[in-house]
Design goal:
CATH architecture of the largest domain: Alpha-Beta Complex
Number of domains: 2
Largest sheet: 9 strands, mixed
Helix content: 25-40%
Structural class: alpha/beta
Number of helices: 11
Shape: globular
CATH topology of the largest domain: Spore Coat Polysaccharide Biosynthesis Protein SpsA, Chain A
Radius of gyration: 20 Å
Strand content: 15-25%
Length: 331
Amino acid sequence: MKVINVILSGGVGSRLWPLSRKSKPKQYLPLFDGKSLFGLTVNRNKKVCDQVLVVGGKDNFQLSREHLQESSNKQYIEIVEACPRNTAAAIAFAAFSLDKEDILLVTPSDHLIEGQDLYEEALEKAVQLAKDGYLVTFGLVPTKPETGFGYIEYRDNEVISFREKPTQERAQEFIRQGNFLWNSGMFCFSAGVYLTELNKYAPEVFQKASEAYDKAVEGFLPLEESLEIPSISIDYAVMEKSEKIKVVPSSFSWSDMGSFEALYEYNLEKEGKKSHSNLALGCKKHVEFIGVEDIIFVETDDAILVLNKNNAQDVKQVYERLEKEKPDLLK
C-alpha cells in the first residue's frame, strides 16, 4: 500500500484573467516568491506521500512535466484528459491506475496552504480514516463569513450536511453557529473504496470513465470516449450521497487562490498591511494610486483589467463574455 498525491491540474483559472490563460493557468504562474501553486503543492505533500500522480489537460500537461522535473520528481504518474469531465471522473482515472489498497490524497493544484505542521497532522488523521475504509474530506475552520466557498456542517468527524455557497447573511449564521467548516475540495480515500462508491452512486460515470481509461495510450485519454462521460463533481456524484463520509476539521492556513481578492489579501498580509490598499499585478511600469482604495490593477502584454477587490468574483463573467467575443485574449 502506498499513499499517492493525486494532483488535479485541469482548471484554467478564469477568475484570474488576464494573468491566467489557457496556455498557462494560474497554478503555473510564479506569483508566490517566485514559486507556483503547482510547485508548492508537490513540495508540501512530499513528507506524507510516496508518489505523485497528476491528472491534467492536454493544453498544459507539458507545464506540469516541467515543474515535476525541476523539483526532482522523476517518478510520477501522468494522466492527460482529452477534455475536462469534472472531478468525479478525473479522480476515477487516478484510482483505475492504482492498486485498490493505495490511498489517494486528492489535492487541487491551485491552493495556497501555510502551517505545515498543522497540515501534516490533518493528513495523518485523514490517511488513518482512509485506511479504515472511509471517504475523507478536509474542512477548514472558517475565519470569516465567506460566500465563495461551500460549507460542511459537522460534529467531530461526522458530516451532518453539505451546504452550497451561501449568501452573506447565511454565511454569518454559519459562523455564529460554530459547527460549520469551509469545504476545501481536498479528499483522502483508498482507490478501491472510491471506485466502489462511485459505481454505487454514479454508475454511468464509473462505466464511461472505465471505458475511456481502458483505451488510453501512454496516459493520454481518447476524446470520443471521454465526451461520453457525464461531467459531475465528486461532491455531487459521491460525497453528498455516500454513507462512508468523514471530515477532518483543520486549522492550517488555506486559500483556494481562486480570485484576485485572494491574491490581494495574500499580498496585503505579506507587506504587513491591515487594510485599505491597492495592488498592481503583472505591470512592468511603476503604478501610483490616488484617491482610491481596494483597487487591483492587472496588466499583461495584450490586456488591462481594473477592478475593486470586492468585485473579484465578477471576473469570471468577463472571461465568459470574451470566450464569445474575443477568444484570442484567453489563449
